[in-house]
Amino acid sequence: MATRRCRSTARPAMPAACADTSGVPPIRIVPFEPAHLLALEMGAHERRWLAGFDIAACAAHWPPGPAWSAVAGATVLGCAGLTESGDTATAWAALSDDLRARPMALYRATSRRLDDLAPRYWRIRACLAADFTPGVRWLRGLGFRPVRTLAGYGPNGETFVEYERWQLSKHSPLPSQRARRC
User: Fold this and answer.
1) Per-residue model confidence as pLDDT tens digits over 57-69
2) Helices 104-117 & 133-141, crossing angle to 10 degrees?
3) With CB atoms 3.0 to 4.6 Å apart as the test, which of 35, 81, 83, 154 could cross-link to 63 if both were Cys?
4) CA 143 to CA 135: how far, in whole Å?
């Protein structure tokens, strides 16, 4: 009987000479701090939807939940995380246009963290403008599925779509059984 060798999942360290030839600082993922929102140069999408919000007030009263930021040098490129409400959570993200030009760092970090955090929540939800195609691709890639259209939900009456990511395990009741639990 032939034996199969498994490939190692460990990645070899990148040689220093190959690490960065572009002069652009590498992106690091760090724990989120509300001050990161103030330092973030919001992307065009965020400016469109957050124009009427006082970001400083939002940062001062940020709700608890796991969150992380992408930084390059001293520049905050984006933030993402979850706000918790019992056994459900709402996903959020604020990105700069610079990060949208190289999105994989935050995408990988978000994907790993959602996979790690998912067992803590019955459901993770997110709302997104229906016409924001890059955001739709991002959410679908993270395992979210559209569940309903929210006509007039945006600050200027725009249509949004609510997405959900369910965590079902052999110990989780089906959604139809969940309402009957005592």
Assistant:
1) 777 777 778 888 9
2) 40
3) 83
4) 13
